[in-house]
Amino acid sequence: MVATTLLLGPAPARADSDPWLAKDKYLHFGVSAVLAGGVYGLGVASSDRRDLSLAAAAGIGLGVGIAKELLDLTGSGTPSWKDLTWDAAGVAAGMLVGLLIDLAVRGPHAGWGDPGPALVPPARRVGQAVATW
What we know:
64% of the residues lie in helices and 0% in strands. It contains four helices and no strands.
C-alpha cells in the first residue's frame, strides 16, 4: 500500500517558473506606473483635458506592455500573462496617482472637457434677460 500510495499519489509541487511575486513583476508594475503617470501628467499639462489624458495614459501604458510581451514571443524573452497583468495594474496605479495629484492641484471641476448639456447652466430663460453664471 505504501508503494502504491507513493507511486500513484499526488506529484510533489514543482517550483513555479513564473511566480506572481518576483523581481520582474515589480519592474513591470513600476515601469508601467511611471509611464502611465508621466503620460497623464504631460497630457493635462499640454491639453488641460483629464479625459483625453487618461485615455492616452491607458493606451500608451498598455501598448508598451503588450509590445514587450509580443517581443518576448519572438524569442527575446519569456512571454507571460502574469507580466501583462502586472503591467495593467501598474498602468491603473499610475493613472490613479496622476489623477489624484491633478485633482489636488486644480480641483475637481477643471479639465474634464465639454461638460455636456446636463451640466451647462441655462443661458436664457423665456421672458428673462441672459443669465450669467
